[in-house]
Structure formats: structure tokens, C-alpha cells
Write a structure and sequence with these properties.
The complex is a heterodimer. In chain A, helix 2 runs antiparallel to helix 10 (274-283), helix 6 (157-168) packs across helix 11 (292-313) and helix 13 (360-376) packs antiparallel against helix 14 (382-397). The two termini of chain A are 20 Å apart. By secondary structure, chain A is of the alpha/beta class. Chain A has 15 helices and ten strands. Chain A has three domains: 21-116 and 246-300, 3-Layer(aba) Sandwich (D-Maltodextrin-Binding Protein, domain 2), CATH 3.40.190; 118-244, D-Maltodextrin-Binding Protein, domain 2 (3-Layer(aba) Sandwich); 360-433, no CATH class. In chain A, strands 1, 2, 3, 4, 5, 6, 7, 8, 9 and 10 form a ten-stranded mixed β-sheet that branches. By secondary structure, chain B is mostly helical. Chain B has one domain (2-468). Chain B has helices at 2-15, 18-36, 42-53, 58-83, 92-103, 107-140, 145-156, 167-181, 207-227, 245-267, 274-287, 300-323, 329-340, 349-352, 354-383, 390-409, 412-430, 436-458, 465-468, 470-501, and strands at residues 184-185, 192-193. In chain B, strands 1-2 form a two-stranded antiparallel ribbon. In chain B, helix 7 (145-156) runs antiparallel to helix 18. The longest helix of chain B has 34 residues, at 107-140. Classes of the chains: A alpha/beta, B mainly alpha. The interface between A and B is large, with 126 and 119 residues.
Chain lengths: 437, 506
């Protein structure tokens, strides 16, 4: 553990302290699990901010769930008015807000800046019969449902592009046979393996395949051809669609004007830093820096567009349900559950169970510990809640050493708190001890 | 072939220096130490530890990655065995018999077979990765939704090995898991199902919550309820040193079989470690001459799944390196890490940056060896955890369980869910319901449904795809054989008994 602490300390202390950093400590929320686009954005920002000497230390916290909605809701609620927190966000969050009818939206946060963009491409494996976008569109118009489109999660940028293309060529987006895969790797393998007719994916995820010639890119969703890439745009092939999967950074609501300006200045300086430019190149992200009111207006316009196309695709509320949307599976599972419960009930619950000498006092103690833990965890803080839990459980098994148990309870809880919160950057609620720690 | 040896030799030459070995040791130590913590799975372990490597040169960084990766994969098995608290899905199968062994004082043997099995599997899998990666990757791409569905059906047959005494109780447990698996966003349409308007439920119920709740919390409440304060069975450690000759004899075949199952399934771009570990468990139980020992501390039930887990972890690197496909969250984090050093995994990687690739592969061998060096001596030490007085042990388990549940999404709802599941787990133990089918149901149910619906959507509603695609047909047939096999065998032995014993048997 000492080794770990030292190693992380070394890692954290990278920044060549040019001048006095604007921030002692800055927190970036990645509203996604490690590995995704927002997590990468947050971690690249972490490095760039530190290397550019804009903040002495920067931590990244992952709050995954529901395409960023959980992170967004937490950010708006728990970080209100805090001038030292940022969160990664983007187009996909907008899609999720629409499909899940989220009560919290991007209007509830302080916009800071759009940072990067990635264009989407339409691709087929090199063995596919479709040589050009025209070939594919002709087949799609002839029998829309026979063409399967593979891509990322439902309501995400890939499906949005599929819907926009269908709309533009005069096929109802509701007839797009879109196959949502979870995660970039899964959809990429389905496309490479020819499991779907055509694949929709981010350009960066395809980069290595394009270089190797194992996929043929039919079109790119940019307005104009990208330098150095021999890929025709949708628009030049007669499909009037343009889309970019943009990622941005936002701050909590309720900031003072000074706090907001400070964050904007830090993010702008970061976006100009050498470390950031280097990272853009490495991840093949496009520099789409856009700040202030222009960014806020951009988000509003995108929201209208996304809402419209998702409604047409049938993934947003109020759209007609397709046959496959729920399917018979939940029904099968629930009836199986009911049947088995009945069978067990008829056979007698007790049959086969070992006759136990029940003791209710220890169970009561554990229940009390659990109840107190739930009640105290966020109010009094993790250390107190866990120590109470530990003590109650220990007493349930043996009540003869209350002070020994209390000592261990305090030591284990405090140790876990420090290890997770300080060394691993996975903060736990501090509660009433916040001032002391 | 000689090219490969030369390239690998060069990789070793750049990896095998004293400072590099130091980084390898630091990597496995950190990876194991963080991987042991509950609620921190391999993906988060690697993500949290990545900044440590930012300031190293590429070679040192890759050596450290390899160590962190294998260490994180291995770390979960320690808590599984000792505390019945699997921190990630790949070590659930290990907990079944591993924890029973620990309770019988054979924790050191369980940890040793896990460590040696991981080493054997990791090394064999790395060898396979070295020589056959591109070939394997092209085969793996032939797996589409229909094949994945068939694979989940095969994995479901593992439930038959975990049913316990009563079929209907096992099935009820399975359906409970399947029903919990319904909760959350339907990934194919984006619609929320059974989420009851609670945003935290949109992503479904996390497997880790169910596993830690059923196993660790449920067990704690059960022990308190059942044994009370005085009837405390003291654990005496039978072996501080490791495995007996008999245990070695029982372990080596499961290691090899676990590797053979784990590696190819890990290579599949939608692999993961759950299916191989449970298929390995099923295989060992089916092939064993004494299947009744399973669930009561059979060492084969630890050796096989642990080997399968590590072999699958190495298999995941095949699509990652050759196609640039991250097939798990951990692989996605690794992909980002490689990109830090200008290494773009994909079809051209082996020709554009052979130096880095072969250094990385050499590092995998070294990391694996370091893991063994680190963990063999530790097995005896770790096993002493069981000597901690039980009040303190159970207090610690519950605090760690709550910590694990909370850190997953930093949500109080998860914590509450953990305790509810714990109460259910205790009730299930009291009334003799097996716990593992519920876990399998939660993991496999949604996978199986999604792949089924994807396959049917692609075929425009034609159900025959499952039979006409050869790989899918073979897998489904295999599932049928596994299910019907024991039944047919029994019939056949009964028939022969009838013939020999005449009318004595009814």
C-alpha cells in the first residue's frame, strides 16, 4: 500500500509548475464507465490541465449510468455552485435526455465549451457487394427492412445518423432495421464479420481498419472532405445530411460570474495547450472548440434536431411501438417465475431445509446496523456509518468485547475511507467529519 | 515462424532488464492490491492505475500495464476464496468451491491452485496469442448474434451443475435472476423496462450487487441467525504451505481444460469471463468421478474456473491487438492506454510498430511469472485471514461489501439494494435454494435475449437462422447433449444394471 501511495503521488505530481496554477485541485466528472468517449475526454483533460500548469492536481470521477443521465443528475444536484468541478458531456447525452424524458437537461448546467468532434462513417466490409453509397441506397430504397444497420446503443449518434439518412432519401426512419450493439467493440466486430448489411460508427474507431483496407467506407458525415482522407461526404453523393458526434465540457449550475469566467479561462488555456493538441491528434479527434453563448446556442439547435429525428425513428416517447420493442421475453420470464413459485409453495417451503435453531437477537442487531448505515452514510459520512455497521455486526456474533470491536470498527472504516478517497481518488461521503479530514 | 521467434526475442531483450523487472513487479503488486478491493473490477483498477505509467518510457509502461492487467484479473479471486465476496463476474465460479475450501482450513491450497492455474493458463494463452493471434481473430469474426445466442444457451446448461438437491428450487432461483435481469433500458430499443421511473434502475441491477448481496451479506445474516453467538466453529488451518500431492494431481487437468475453454471464448469479441468460467465449472463437475464433492470444497472447481478466467483475459488481447476491438470495459481502457504511446491496435499493428507489440507480448510472459512469484508466498499469509476472530471478520466483510456496492455508481440506492438482496440471500439459504443460478440468470438472461433479438431482426424474423448457421447449430446441439447426457447415462447404466441384477431393482 505504501508503494501504491508513492506511485500515485509521483503520478499526481507531474505538472512542471510554470507559474502559480489557477486551481489547487480541480475535479472532472466522467458520466460514464472507464473506457468510453467521455471517460477518455475527462482523462485527457486531466493530463492537459496538469501539464499546462493550470491546476496542481486534477481528479477524474466516473459516475456511469443511463448514457450519462445519472452523472448529469448528480452533477446538477450535488455540485451546485461549486466552482472547481467540470463534467464531460455531448451529443449522446442529448439523445438520452430525449429518449428517457429526463427531468434534468443540459439547460440545467453552466455551459463552458464544446471541445471535440468526431465524424460518423458508413462502412461495409471489403467483401460486401456494395461498392458505393449509391449501391446501398438503391438496395435500401427497394427493401428497407432487408438492410440491417449495425451501430452503437439505441438513441445514440449512430442511430441518429441512420435515421437522418433514411429521412433524406425519402424512406420513413421508422423502417430502418437498426441493430443496436452495446459498445464500440461489439458493433465493430459485427460490421467486420459481415453480420450486418452496413455499419455506422465513429471515424476514429474505424481508423485502423480503413488504413488496413479491411473495410470500405461509403460516406462520411462531415460537410466537406477531410484533409488526407479519401472519403466522399454524404452530401456530395446527394444525401443531404451532416452530423458530428461532439463532446463538450460543462460546469455546475449556480456559479458566480467570476467562477464561471475562471473556469472558461482555464478550459480555453487547456484547449490551446500543446498537451491537448497532442492528445487530439493521438485520438483523432477534431478540434471543435466553441465557447460561451455561441456554444449554448449550438446546444439548443442540436436539441431540436435530435428530438425531431428520434421521434421519427420511434425511439422517443409518443412514437408508435414496433412489434419487436418489448417482445414476449419478459412475459416468459415472469410466468416462469410465477410457475416455479407455485410449485415450491405446493411442495412446501420447508421441505429439505435444515432445521435451524433460530436466534433473533443477532439478526436484530445486524438489521439495526444496516438501518443505521443506510440512514447515516450520506448524512454523518462514510466513516461513522461504517463504524456503526461494523460494531453492530461484530456484537451480533460476540458481545463480550465491545471496546475491542469499537477500536477495529473505527480503524477499518477510517482506513477504507482514506484508501479509497485519498489514494485511489474514489471519494466517499465525508459527512460531519469533512472539516477534520 | 522463425520471424516470430526473432521478434519475440527482441521483445524479451528490451523487456528483460533489472529496472523493467522492477516495473513488472510494481505492476502486479498494484494490480493485485487494487483488484482485491471490493467493487473495483479490473476495468476500474486499470483506469485508476494508468496515470502511474504516464511518465514512463513505452517499454516500462507496457511492462507495467501487463502486470497491472494480469494482477487486476487475479486480484478478484483472493476475496472470492477467503471472504466469499467476488469483486467481479469472472471470479463468481471460483467462490463456490474456493470459499468452502477456505472454511475447511484449506484456503492456502485454494489460493495456490488459483495462482498456479492462473500462471499456467496465462502462459499457455500468451503462447497461443503469440503464434496464432491473426488467425484466431478472423475465426472469431464469424461469430454473429445467432452464434452468441447459441453460446449463451450452452452457458445456461451450466445451471444444471448448480441446481442442488431440488430441480424446482434451482429453477426458481434461476427465474429470480432472469426477472431481475429484465430491469433497465432495453438496449435494442432504448425503452425503459421495469425501472419504475427510478433513474438509477435504468442501467439495470448490477451483477456485483447481486453477487456480494447474496454471497457476503446473505451469508453474514445467515451465520448470525443460524449459529448465534456461541456455536462458533473455529477454523483450523490444515495447510499453511499449499497443496498436497493429491491436490496437485487433481488440479493439473482442470488447469489445462480451463485454459482450453477460456482462451477461445476470451478471443470472441463479445466474450467476457463469465461464460468460460462457468462452462469450465460445469465441465469439471461432469468429468469428475465424484461430482458430489462439488459445492463442498472440490479443488477442481477452483482450478478450472481460475485457469479459464486468466486464459480468457489473455484471449481478450487477441481481438484488441489484431483488430483494435475492445471486447470488454477493461480492454477499452487498455486501448486508450496503448493510444497514449502512439500504438494504434488494428490489422496493421504488427507491421507498423513491431517493436512495441513484441515488447508488450514479452511483458505479458514476464507479468504472468511475476504474478506467480508474488502470490505463491502470499497464499499462506492470505489464508490466515480466516483466523481473524469471527465477529471482526464478519464486521469487516459487511463494511467491505457496503463499500463495494457504494463505489460502483456512488449511489445510495445500490447500497439499499445490496441489503435487500442480502436478506433474500439469507432466506434462500435457510430454505435451501441454490444461490448461483440466480446470478447466472441475471448475467446470461439479458445477453441471451439481446443476441436472440438481434439475430432475428437481421434475418427479418426468420427463426431458422439458428439451425442453418453451422456454428450456431453445433453449439445448440452441444447444449442439448450436455443437458440430456447425464439423464441418458443414467438410463443406460440402469439398463445394464437391470440386465445384470435382474428383478432386484425396480
Amino acid at each position: 500500500m505504501v508503494c501504491l501511495a508513492v506511485a500515485l503521488f509521483v503520478a499526481a505530481g507531474v505538472s512542471p509548475a510554470a507559474a502559480q496554477p489557477a486551481y489547487g485541485h480541480l475535479r472532472i466528472i466522467a458520466p460514464a464507465a472507464p473506457g468510453g468517449g467521455w471517460d477518455q475526454t475527462a482523462r485527457v483533460m486531466q493530463q492537459a490541465l496538469q501539464r499546462a500548469g493550470l491546476a496542481r492536481t486534477v481528479s477524474v470521477e466516473n459516475i456511469p449510468g443511463a448514457a450519462g443521465l445519472i452523472g448529469l443528475a448528480r452533477f446538477v444536484g450535488a455540485e451546485h455552485g461549486r466552482g472547481d468541478a467540470l463534467m464531460a458531456s455531448g451529443l449522446i447525452m442529448l439523445g438520452a435526455i430525449v429518449t428517457q424524458r429526463s427531468a434534468v437537461t443540459l439547460r440545467d448546467v453552466t455551459p463552458i465549451a464544446r471541445l471535440t468532434g468526431e465524424y460518423e462513417v458508413l462502412a461495409v466490409p471489403s467483401t460486401s457487394p456494395f461498392r458505393t453509397l449509391d449501391d446501398f441506397i438503391r438496395a435500401f430504397k427497394a427493401r428497407p427492412e432487408a438492410m440491417s444497420w449495425g451501430g452503437g446503443s439505441a438513441g445514440g449518434s449512430d442511430q441518429i445518423l441512420a435515421g437522418l439518412i433514411a429521412d433524406a432519401v425519402g424512406v420513413s426512419p421508422g423502417r430502418v432495421n437498426y441493430i443496436a450493439f452495446s459498445g464500440g467493440g461489439e458493433s465493430l466486430s459485427a460490421i467486420l464479420g459481415g453480420q450486418v448489411s452496413v455499419g455506422v460508427n465513429g471515424l476514429a474507431e474505424f481508423a485502423a481498419q480503413i488504413e488496413a483496407g479491411s473495410v470500405r467506407v461509403l460516406a462520411i458525415s462531415s460537410a466537406e472532405r477531410l484533409p488526407g482522407l479519401d472519403i466522399p461526404t454524404l452530401r456530395e453523393q446527394g444525401v443531404n445530411v451532416e452530423l458530428e458526434n461532439w463532446r463538450s465540457v460543462v460546469a455546475p449550475p449556480g456559479l458566480s460570474a467570476a467562477d464561471r469566467r475562471r473556469l472558461e479561462a482555464a478550459v480555453e488555456a487547456m484547449a490551446r495547450s500543446a498537451a491537448w493538441r497532442e492528445a487530439l491528434e493521438r485520438y483523432r479527434w477534431l478540434d471543435r472548440y466553441l465557447a460561451g453563448d455561441a456554444f449554448a446556442r449550438f446546444v439548443d439547435a442540436e436539441e431540436v434536431r435530435v428530438q425531431d429525428i428520434l421521434r421519427k425513428l420511434g425511439t422517443s416517447p409518443g412514437a408508435p411501438r414496433t412489434l419487436g420493442s418489448a417482445g414476449p421475453y419478459p412475459l416468459i420470464v415472469l410466468s416462469g417465475l410465477v410457475l416455479c413459485t407455485l410449485a415450491v409453495a405446493i411442495g412446501g417451503l420447508r421441505a429439505g431445509s435444515t432445521r435451524a435453531r433460530a436466534e433473533w437477537r443477532p439478526v436484530g442487531l445486524i438489521a439495526a446496523g444496516i438501518g443505521l448505515d443506510l440512514a447515516l452514510a450520506e448524512r454523518a459520512g462514510f466513516i461513522i456509518a461504517s463504524a456503526v455497521l461494523f460494531w453492530c455486526v461484530a456484537r451480533a456474533f460476540d458481545a463480550r468485547h465491545p471496546s475491542r470491536d469499537a477500536l477495529f470498527a473505527a480503524a477499518v472504516s477510517a482506513g477504507a475511507y482514506l484508501l479509497f478517497g485519498r489514494v485511489l481518488d474514489l471519494p466517499l461521503p465525508a459527512g460531519v467529519l469533512a472539516g477534520w479530514l | 515462424m522463425t520471424n516470430i521467434f526473432e521478434a519475440l526475442g527482441a521483445g524479451f531483450a528490451s523487456a528483460l532488464t533489472l529496472p523493467h523487472l522492477g516495473w513488472a513487479l510494481a505492476g502486479v503488486t498494484l494490480g493485485t492490491a487494487v483488484g482485491v478491493l471490493p467493487g473495483i473490477g479490473p476495468a476500474l483498477t486499470v483506469a485508476v492505475l494508468l496515470p502511474v505509467t504516464f511518465n514512463l518510457d513505452p517499454t516500462s509502461a507496457f511492462i507495467m500495464f501487463a502486470g497491472i492487467y494480469y494482477g487486476a484479473m487475479y486480484g478478484g479471486s483472493t476475496t472470492s476464496i477467503l471472504l466469499n465476496t467476488p469483486g467481479e463476474t469472472g471470479s463468481i465460479a471460483t467462490a463456490i468451491d474456493g470459499h468452502m475450501m477456505a472454511r475447511q482450513g484449506r484456503g492456502a491450497a485454494a489460493l495456490t491452485t488459483a495462482a498456479v492455474g492462473s500462471f499456467v493458463a496465462g502462459t499457455l494463452a500468451t503462447i497461443a496469442l503469440t503464434f496464432f493471434a491473426p488467425l484466431l481473430a478472423s475465426v472469431a469474426l464469424r461469430f454473429g448474434p445467432a452464434e452468441y445466442f447459441a453460446l449463451t444457451v450452452l452457458a445456461f446448461t451450466a445451471v444444471s451443475a448448480l441446481l442442488g438437491a431440488s430441480l424446482v428450487r434451482g429453477l426458481l432461483s434461476l427465474f429470480l435472476g432472469l426477472a431481475l435481469g429484465l430491469v433497465g433500458i432495453d438496449p435494442l430499443t432504448g425503452d425503459a423496462r421495469f425501472a419504475f421511473g427510478i433513474p438509477q434502475l435504468l442501467d439495470g441491477i448490477d451483477v456485483v450487487i447481486l453477487v456480494i448481496g447474496l454471497f457476503a451479506v446473505g451469508e453474514t445474516i445467515y451465520q448470525a441467525w443460524h449459529h448465534g453467538r456461541d456455536a462458533i466453529e473455529a477454523v483450523t488451518l490444515h495447510d499453511f504451505t499449499g497443496m498436497s500431492r493429491e491436490e496437485w494431481r487433481r488440479s493439473w487437468k482442470p488447469w489445462l481444460r480451463g485454459t482450453a475453454i477460456g482462451f477461445p471464448l476470451g478471443v470472441l469479441p463479445c466474450g467476457g469471463t463469465v461464460i468460460p468460467t462457468f462452462l469450465s465449472y460445469l465441465t469439471e463437475k461432469r468429468l469428475s468421478d465424484s461430482p458430489h464433492r462439488f459445492g463442498h470444497g472440490a479443488i477442481e472447481g477452483v482450478a478450472g474456473p481460475e485457469a479459464a478466467n486468466n486464459a480468457a483475459a489473455a484471449g481478450v488481447l487477441v481481438p484488441l491487438l489484431t483488430l483494435g476491438l475492445p471486447s470488454s470495459a477493461t480492454a477499452a481502457v487498455m486501448l486508450a492506454a496503448f493510444q497514449q504511446y502512439g500504438l494504434q491496435p488494428g490489422p496493421l499493428l504488427f507491421s507498423t510498430r513491431p517493436d512495441l507489440v513484441w515488447t508488450l507480448i514479452a511483458s505479458l510472459y514476464i507479468g504472468n511469472l511475476m504474478l506467480l512469484v508474488l502470490n505463491l508466498p502470499l497464499a499462506g499469509l492470505w489464508a490466515r485471514v480466516m483466523l481473524v476472530p469471527r465477529p471482526l471478520l464478519f464486521g469487516g466483510i459487511l463494511v467491505l461489501a457496503s463499500l463495494g456496492a457504494y463505489t460502483l455508481n456512488r449511489s445510495m440506492l445500490d447500497l439499499a439494494l445490496l441489503y435487500v438482496v442480502g436478506a433474500i440471500g439469507c432466506a434462500m439459504r435457510v430454505y435451501d435454494f441454490p444461490l448461483v443460478p440466480a446470478v447466472l440468470g441475471l448475467i446470461l438472461g439479458p445477453l441471451s435475449e439481446q443476441h436472440f433479438r438481434r439475430a432475428v431482426a437481421i434475418s427479418e424474423g426468420d427463426l431458422s437462422v439458428f439451425a442453418t448457421r453451422p456454428l450456431s447449430a453445433v453449439l445448440l446441439l452441444l447444449a442439448a447433449v450436455v443437458l440430456a447426457g447425464p439423464f441418458l447415462m443414467k438410463r443406460m447404466t440402469n439398463m445394464t444394471n437391470m440386465n445384470t441384477n435382474g428383478e432386484e431393482r425396480r
